[in-house]
């Protein structure tokens, strides 16, 4: 089986889970949005001063980018969970379904709210007068006259909201909610275009199916056709059935494996998952999370295990820029993680994924650049590319300050596009990871750090407070301690990085597992 067929087969095997979770999230958000918007719209149509603020608020929410709105709910819910835990002794999960549900509910409100207000206010005044003339109360007039007449316009708003919500739900992956977006985010990071197309196609097909079912309901209301309404209800029931958990999905997996949003993390996440499942431990994955979100999710027991990097914890979480040396740094970090967050640093994997700067060798030779000190001489005339978080990291600020690095232009890329950007000459310098296979693939030159401005980035396994002392978990991961060399990790990354016959992260993880036997 070639790589394309293998990727398609893998995508197809994951469809029941991804589609089911997507349907459950989208329809729950749409239902909650309808439950809030419809009464609010009726009140706004009745109370003149309420209409403006209600529509304005819903309109402002629509201007917030979907990914930002989804991400904003996580720290809000995390703080609320901590408060309820301290106050009432009961917390809740702030990662995954809940932040996605709340954000998408807000997105669903505007078209339903706006259409309902317009539809009710557009009913002919003589019709309302006739309803009052026959003795109807305001409630009877609403239920028997206004809403039936307004139903086609309201249904049009619901159809619009449904399409918006189904599309935006693909962005819920970075906050830990499984959806069809898992295909898209994983595919973009690993350049697996079959995954990207599969995810886009599945989301589009789902949106069309829901839109057609709601369109049938809209037609049923317009024509007062019970047959069409029954058909619409049956179609929605079939779609809803896709969101019901299968026997395999029922019951929460006991161990949640998290990953950040780049391909090495997907490989290591799959490696941890394979190890745990081989030991008979049920698992689930939360892929593509932001670095800080993932760390705080681990501390809050929303994630149970993942691989992080020592330098990231040292600078981003501990806010340290001093350099006490590798062993002293790791000892301090281990104690800080346990005392401050209850997190256990279980083991070092054996390789370092260090942030570094890289250039094309011809450009570096032409400019006489082999170190960051050399780069500082010519940086003012060069452009630099970084991943989404690089330029906001304390270690970059410390490095730029140490060497006096000031570039003419700074650009941000998705991490896997960085290497092509420097290869093709879009930028002169990029932030790179020392364990990335594309460094060798593209023949890039890594620039030395003679002043040791960047801390060590040893890959380490972290455990949540909830499972820090679980003997089965520790035993399952014990063999990974110091077992992966830099060259081995580079090769695993290159399997996923290569432009032709690229392997999936799962296949690369299987290869890694074979090397450890």
List keywords for this structure.
single chain, 517 residues, alpha/beta, MetI-like fold, D-Maltodextrin-Binding Protein, domain 2, 5-stranded mixed β-sheet, 3-stranded antiparallel β-sheet, 62% helix
Tell me the layout of helices and strands.
Layout: H1 3-46, H2 48-63, H3 66-88, H4 97-121, H5 125-133, H6 138-168, H7 181-190, H8 193-223, H9 226-241, E1 255-260, H10 263-278, E2 283-289, H11 291-299, E3 305-309, H12 310-317, H13 326-341, E4 344-352, E5 355-359, H14 361-367, H15 372-378, E6 383-386, H16 394-403, E7 409-412, H17 415-423, E8 429-433, H18 438-441, E9 445-446, E10 458-463, H19 471-477, H20 486-497, H21 505-515
Parallel strand pairs: 1-2, 6-7, 6-8
Antiparallel strand pairs: 3-10, 4-10, 5-8, 5-9
Helix pairs in contact: 1-2, 1-4, 1-6, 1-8, 2-4, 3-4, 4-6, 5-6, 6-8, 7-8, 8-9, 10-21, 20-21
Description:
- The chain has 517 residues and is α/β, with parallel strands linked by helices.
- It folds into 3 domains: 23-241, MetI-like fold; 255-353 and 458-515, 3-Layer(aba) Sandwich (D-Maltodextrin-Binding Protein, domain 2); 355-446, 3-Layer(aba) Sandwich (D-Maltodextrin-Binding Protein, domain 2), CATH 3.40.190.
- Helix content is 62%, strand content 10%.
- It is built from 21 helices and 10 strands.
- It has helices at residues 3-46, 48-63, 66-88, 97-121, 125-133, 138-168, 181-190, 193-223, 226-241, 263-278, 291-299, 310-317, 326-341, 361-367, 372-378, 394-403, 415-423, 438-441, 471-477, 486-497, 505-515; strands spanning 255-260, 283-289, 305-309, 344-352, 355-359, 383-386, 409-412, 429-433, 445-446, 458-463.
- The strands form 3 sheets. It has a 5-stranded mixed β-sheet with strand order 7-6-8-5-9. Strands 3-10-4 form a 3-stranded antiparallel β-sheet, with helices on both faces.
- α10 links the parallel β1 and β2 (283-289).
- α1 (3-46) runs antiparallel to α2 (48-63), α1 packs parallel to α8 and α4 (97-121) crosses α6 (138-168).
- The chain is elongated.
- The mean pLDDT is 88.
């Amino acid at each position: 089986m070639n790589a394309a067929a293998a990727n398609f087969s893998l995508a197809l095997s994951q469809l029941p889970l991804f589609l089911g979770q997507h349907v459950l999230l989208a329809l729950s958000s749409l239902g909650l949005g309808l439950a809030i918007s419809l009464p609010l719209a009726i009140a706004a149509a009745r109370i003149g001063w309420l209409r403006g603020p209600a529509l304005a608020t819903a309109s402002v929410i629509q201007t917030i980018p979907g990914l930002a709105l989804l991400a904003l709910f996580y720290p809000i819910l995390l703080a609320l969970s901590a408060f309820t835990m301290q106050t009432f002794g009961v917390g809740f999960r702030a990662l995954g379904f809940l932040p996605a549900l709340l954000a998408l509910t807000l997105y669903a409100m505007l078209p339903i709210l706006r259409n309902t207000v317009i539809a009710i206010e557009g009913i002919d005044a003589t019709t309302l007068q006739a309803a009052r003339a026959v003795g109807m109360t305001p409630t009877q007039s609403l239920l028997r006259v206004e809403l039936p007449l307004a139903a086609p316009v309201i249904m049009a708003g619901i159809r619009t909201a449904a399409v918006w919500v189904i599309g935006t739900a693909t962005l819920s992956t970075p906050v830990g909610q499984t959806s069809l977006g898992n295909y898209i985010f994983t595919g973009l990071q690993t350049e697996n275009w079959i995954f990207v197309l599969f995810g886009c196609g599945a989301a589009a097909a789902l949106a069309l199916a829901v839109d057609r079912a709601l369109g049938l309901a809209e037609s049923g209301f317009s024509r007062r056709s019970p047959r069409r309404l029954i058909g619409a209800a049956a179609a929605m029931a079939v779609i809803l059935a896709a969101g019901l958990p299968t026997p395999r999905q029922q019951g929460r997996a006991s161990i949640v494996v998290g990953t950040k949003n780049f391909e090495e993390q997907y490989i290591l996440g799959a490696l941890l998952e394979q190890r745990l499942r081989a030991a008979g431990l049920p698992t689930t994955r939360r892929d593509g999370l932001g670095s800080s979100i993932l760390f705080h999710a681990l501390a809050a027991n929303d994630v149970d295990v993942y691989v992080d990097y020592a330098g990231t914890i040292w600078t981003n979480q501990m806010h340290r820029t001093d350099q006490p040396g590798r062993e002293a740094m790791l000892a301090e970090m281990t104690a800080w993680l346990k005392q401050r967050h209850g997190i256990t640093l279980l083991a070092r994997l054996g390789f370092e994924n260090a942030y570094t700067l890289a250039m094309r060798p011809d450009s570096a030779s032409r400019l006489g650049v082999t170190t960051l000190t050399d780069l500082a001489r010519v940086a003012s005339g060069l452009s630099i590319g970084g991943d989404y978080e690089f330029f906001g990291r304390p270690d970059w600020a410390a490095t730029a300050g140490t060497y006096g690095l000031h570039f003419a232009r700074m650009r941000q890329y998705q991490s896997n596009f960085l290497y092509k950007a420097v290869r093709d000459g879009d930028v002169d310098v990029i932030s790179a990871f020392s364990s990335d296979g594309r460094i060798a693939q593209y023949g890039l030159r890594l620039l030395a750090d003679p002043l040791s401005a960047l801390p060590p980035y040893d890959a380490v396994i972290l455990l949540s407070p909830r499972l820090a002392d679980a003997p089965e978990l520790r035993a399952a991961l014990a063999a990974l301690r110091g077992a992966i060399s830099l060259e081995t990790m580079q090769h695993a990354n290159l399997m996923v990085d290569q432009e032709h016959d690229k392997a999936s992260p799962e296949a690369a993880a299987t290869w890694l597992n074979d090397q450890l036997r």
